Amino acid sequence: MFSTLVTAPATPLFTTEQAKDQLRVTSSAEDTLIDGYVASATAYFDARDGVTGQALITQTWKLTLAGDEWESGLRLPVGPVQSIASFEYYIDGVLTTFATENYRLTDGRVYLVEGVSLPSHEVREDAVQITYLAGYGDTSADVPETTRNAVAVFFSGLYDQRSAEHEGTSQMTIAFQSLLAASRTARGLF
Q1: Which of 7, 47, 55, 60 has the fewest Cβ atoms nearer than 10 Å?
Q2: What is the set of domains in the chain, with CATH numbers?
Q3: Which residues contact 137 (CB under 8 A, 6 or more apart)?
Q4: Can you tell me the mean pLDDT for 79-105?
């Protein structure tokens, strides 16, 4: 079982101008640097590999399963799941679509409708493929405020401390850890 990002978010969590406002930067001399910090901070939180395990802005993922890994009630690994774009399986070397009326999506899990079973399919590593949309929504405004604030604190810290060495715990670190805890708690991670 493995997940692959098919389509990245269409918009960044913070535009260059929004990030510069956060940093109180007025010139465009460091736009590329700032965009890089925003991308790094967003990646730290976003999707399968991020600390929240949640897609922030809408993106498309594909879950690929070997035939023996399928079970009704399968949890899609990157949430929050918005919808299933396709549910396919291999039969006789052809990728075949499983009709939408045969399954339902509930709380990020795919269930077969009562009385329906997954058709016989080939035994191979990519026997079943579910492509789905995940994320809080299409814009930054859809992402929970605590998560947006945590990302902002993180990229601000990267920018502010890019060349300075600090001893001990900074106020930024304390604020970041608090926002991270709030984001994770809201998701039920601890």
Answers
A1: 7
A2: 15-52+138-187 (1.10.3230.30), 59-134 (no CATH)
A3: 57, 58, 143
A4: 95
